[in-house]
Structures are given as C-alpha cells and as structure tokens.
C-alpha cells in the first residue's frame, strides 16, 4: 500500500478527496493530512510518503512554496496539484517542479482515478528497478543510475537547455560517451527521448488545461510555436488543436 500525504485547507474537500483516493482507487492510503503547507513540511521532516496531493492556494505556506521545498528534500517524489486556477503561471511552475499532474476543481473522479493509476504504475516500476539493482553488478548499477539521473534532468528542465553537452555536464561525462551509453541502456537516442517526453507533456497540458498552444510550446521547450506544431504533427499525427478537440470529445 502506497502512503499519501493529503494537503488541503478546506476540511470538507479534504475529506472528499480522502474518500476518493482510498475508495475510488487501489493501492493508496491517506496516512497523513495537513491543513496547510507549514504542517505538511513539519510532517515531511520525519516521514516520507509515496505521494503528495496538495491544494495550490493555502494560508501560511501555499502549494507552490510547499512544492518548491519538497523538491529540495525529495527530487522524485510524485506530487499532484489540486487547483481552482487554470493559467500559465501555475502550469509553468508545475512543469518546473516536475509535478505528476495538475487537476482542476471541482475534481473529476475518473480523472483522479486515471492520474493515480498512472502514478501507481510509476511507483511499481521504481520498486521493480530497485529489486533488480540488487541483483546486478556494481558497474552496471552505476550506468543505470547515470541514465536515471539524465532522464530526471530532462524531465526537470523541459523548457530549458537540453543539448547533449549540457546533459553530459550534469553527469560529468564526455558527450559522445553519454550518447552511446544512453543508446545502449535504453535502445533509443537522447534526442528521440527528449522529443518523446516533450510531446507527452504537451499532450497532457492540451488535455488538462486551456492554455494557448504557444504557451504550451514554451513550457515544453520550444521558443517557436510554429516549430512546436510541426514536431507535434510529425510525432502525434495531428495538430495540437486537433488533438485537444479529440481528447475533449472523448471526455464528454
């Protein structure tokens, strides 16, 4: 059972979310609740949950400040934002802090269930990787750790400089060697992986927010909206606008 820290200042909403998480999904249990970011940080000093679900607007320490502090403590801890605000500023911060999902109030039960199912799959994969690492030799374990660090850097800096040289510097390797190692360990090129991650994040933002296409382009690392749309159509098979219309129609 994966442990959830639930952070929400409105008691009725908090109780409703707890019920949705525990009865509407499998594999998660709300082990702790906090009314604000300050209480959540106090809990995190002694305990580490598997998932944090937090509101974005709260008294004392708000959700964005809380997430910033969490990332200083735990780089890869899954976080789901619950918000009544759908704008570029919040979405930009969510991308920067590598938030797992950004759900708008009122919460759609099926959307929450889908989000938690994806997070559980990720947690299960990490658990399996840890188990496998106990059976591999030291040198191979180190290579896997390097690739995981590179992937984490890519996810954390989608809107930044992701040139091979930059990635190599973050793991203190020669760019050519890193490129070869990445291909050997993952079966794909670094550039292809970056494009895949950017397109997946773009699809998520197109589905879950009403942000303009040019804002989404910036959030996933494209300064030119035209270039972003060309890449999106090549990778996804349709324009960003058509994709948004398609997923919106499926939600009806």
The DSSP helix count reads 12
The proportion of strand residues reads 5-15%
Structural Rg: 19 Å
Order of strands side by side in the largest beta sheet? Answer: 2-1-3-4-5
Task: Tell me the count of domains.
Answer: 3
| Distance between the first and last residues' Cα | 32 Å
Series of secondary-structure elements, N-terminal to C-terminal: EHEHEHEHEHHHHHHHH
Which CATH architecture of the largest domain is right? Answer: 3-Layer(aba) Sandwich
Sheet with the most strands, sense and barrel status: 5 strands, parallel
Q: Whole-number average pLDDT?
A: 87
- Identify the CATH class of the largest domain: Alpha Beta
Structural class: alpha/beta
CATH superfamily of the largest domain: Response regulator
Return residue spans where pLDDT drops below 50 for at least 5 consecutive residues.
none
Question: What is the fold-level CATH name, i.e. the topology of the largest domain?
Answer: Rossmann fold
Helix content: 55-70%
How many strand segments? 5
Rough outline: globular
Pfam families: HTH_18, Response_reg
Subcellular location: Cytoplasm
Protein name: DNA-binding response regulator
Keywords: Cytoplasm, DNA-binding, Phosphoprotein, Transcription, Transcription regulation, Two-component regulatory system
């Amino acid at each position: 059972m994966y442990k959830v820290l639930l952070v929400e200042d409105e008691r009725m909403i908090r109780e409703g979310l707890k019920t949705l998480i525990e009865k509407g999904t499998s594999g998660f249990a709300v082990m702790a609740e906090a009314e604000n970011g300050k209480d959540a940080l106090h809990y995190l000093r002694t305990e580490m949950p598997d998932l944090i679900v937090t509101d974005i607007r709260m008294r004392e320490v708000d959700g964005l400040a809380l997430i910033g502090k969490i990332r200083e403590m735990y780089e890869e801890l899954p976080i789901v934002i619950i918000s009544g605000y759908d704008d570029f500023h919040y979405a930009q911060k969510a991308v920067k802090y590598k938030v797992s999902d950004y759900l708008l109030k009122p919460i759609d039960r099926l959307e929450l269930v889908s989000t938690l199912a994806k997070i559980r799959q990720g947690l299960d994969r990490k658990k399996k990787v840890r188990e496998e690492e106990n059976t591999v030799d030291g040198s191979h374990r180190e290579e896997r750790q390097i690739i995981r660090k590179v992937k984490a850097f890519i996810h954390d800096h989608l809107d930044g400089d992701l040139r091979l040289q930059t990635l190599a510097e973050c793991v203190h390797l020669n760019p050519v060697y890193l490129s070869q190692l990445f291909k050997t360990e993952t079966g794909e090129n670094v550039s292809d992986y970056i494009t895949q991650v950017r397109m997946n994040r773009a699809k998520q933002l197109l589905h879950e927010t009403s942000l303009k296409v040019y804002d989404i382009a910036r959030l996933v690392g494209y300064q030119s909206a035209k270039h972003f749309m060309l890449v999106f159509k090549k990778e996804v098979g349709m324009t960003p606008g058509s994709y948004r219309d398609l997923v919106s129609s499926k939600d009806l």
